[in-house]
Amino acid sequence: PALGIIIVAAGSGTRLGRREPKAFVSLAGRSILAHALEGVLQLAEPARIVIVAPRSRLDAADAVVAQVAGAARGYVSVVSGGESRQASVAAGLAALGEAPRVVLVHDAARCLTPTDAIQRVVDAVRETGAGVIPVQPVADTIKRVDPAGAVLGTVDRSELVHVQTPQGFPRELIVDAYARAEREHTDDAALVAAAGYPVTTVAGDDAAFKITTPWDLRRAETMLRRPVG
Ligand code: C5P
């Protein structure tokens, strides 16, 4: 397939306060990873998918693929992740092979991302040839504070956005940027930008929020019980 998707699911999810790694926490009866895989499989075009899982959960990830991917399971593989998200993405890139022209990197923890939000990223990568990230405006006022909690100032939020995933890139851009990365970056777009490549934005989606805390998990449960709109 011309599209490759890396689902990073190798984090521990400490902030969720569960014993199992976050991607294997149950959400409305199936794992967060199962929901994430189901989401990307709803794209109209076939994709080569690599799931990056914790080393201790490779069998569990294989079981999710068997359960969710059905006829598409031949396109899905599982590899083990690294210490950092960046190391996990690098493992995914290595496993993806050279066929995909466009690569998406998606957090398993954003498992309710709507298909059209994913498609917008794919389309924009093809149109622009640049890196593409889904973003949303910042709703709250943002302030800088010192270590003691005193307010130093208010940041102009008109220039600020929240960044979601999937982030999309032409394959050769992200492969080259990863090969040249000299330090850890907080997202793939920052790493690609540090290599000198352009990055642009498309509209994100409220449902693409990242499950991080127990509160987020409850929000996701509620959405699945009672879809918005
Ligand atoms: O920890 P956080 O929620 O920010 O991680 C974002 C995504 O990156 C998650 O889906 C997580 O599983 C993944 N990750 C990973 N390998 C790591 C750390 C995080 O695949 N070492």
TrEMBL record:
<feature type="region of interest" description="2-C-methyl-D-erythritol 4-phosphate cytidylyltransferase">
    <location>
        <begin position="1"/>
        <end position="229"/>
    </location>
</feature>
<comment type="similarity">
    <text>Belongs to the IspF family.</text>
</comment>
<dbReference type="GO" id="GO:0016114">
    <property type="term" value="P:terpenoid biosynthetic process"/>
</dbReference>
<feature type="site" description="Transition state stabilizer">
    <location>
        <position position="22"/>
    </location>
</feature>
<dbReference type="GO" id="GO:0019288">
    <property type="term" value="P:isopentenyl diphosphate biosynthetic process, methylerythritol 4-phosphate pathway"/>
</dbReference>
<dbReference type="GO" id="GO:0046872">
    <property type="term" value="F:metal ion binding"/>
</dbReference>
<feature type="site" description="Transition state stabilizer">
    <location>
        <position position="15"/>
    </location>
</feature>
<comment type="similarity">
    <text>In the C-terminal section; belongs to the IspF family.</text>
</comment>
<keyword id="KW-0511">Multifunctional enzyme</keyword>
<feature type="site" description="Positions MEP for the nucleophilic attack">
    <location>
        <position position="210"/>
    </location>
</feature>
<dbReference type="GO" id="GO:0050518">
    <property type="term" value="F:2-C-methyl-D-erythritol 4-phosphate cytidylyltransferase activity"/>
</dbReference>
<keyword id="KW-0414">Isoprene biosynthesis</keyword>
<comment type="pathway">
    <text>Isoprenoid biosynthesis; isopentenyl diphosphate biosynthesis via DXP pathway; isopentenyl diphosphate from 1-deoxy-D-xylulose 5-phosphate: step 2/6.</text>
</comment>
<comment type="function">
    <text>Bifunctional enzyme that catalyzes the formation of 4-diphosphocytidyl-2-C-methyl-D-erythritol from CTP and 2-C-methyl-D-erythritol 4-phosphate (MEP) (IspD), and catalyzes the conversion of 4-diphosphocytidyl-2-C-methyl-D-erythritol 2-phosphate (CDP-ME2P) to 2-C-methyl-D-erythritol 2,4-cyclodiphosphate (ME-CPP) with a corresponding release of cytidine 5-monophosphate (CMP) (IspF).</text>
</comment>
<dbReference type="GO" id="GO:0008685">
    <property type="term" value="F:2-C-methyl-D-erythritol 2,4-cyclodiphosphate synthase activity"/>
</dbReference>
<comment type="pathway">
    <text>Isoprenoid biosynthesis; isopentenyl diphosphate biosynthesis via DXP pathway; isopentenyl diphosphate from 1-deoxy-D-xylulose 5-phosphate: step 4/6.</text>
</comment>
<protein>
    <recommendedName>
        <fullName>Bifunctional enzyme IspD/IspF</fullName>
        <ecNumber>2.7.7.60</ecNumber>
        <ecNumber>4.6.1.12</ecNumber>
    </recommendedName>
</protein>
<keyword id="KW-0548">Nucleotidyltransferase</keyword>
<keyword id="KW-0808">Transferase</keyword>
<keyword id="KW-0456">Lyase</keyword>
<feature type="site" description="Positions MEP for the nucleophilic attack">
    <location>
        <position position="157"/>
    </location>
</feature>
<keyword id="KW-0479">Metal-binding</keyword>
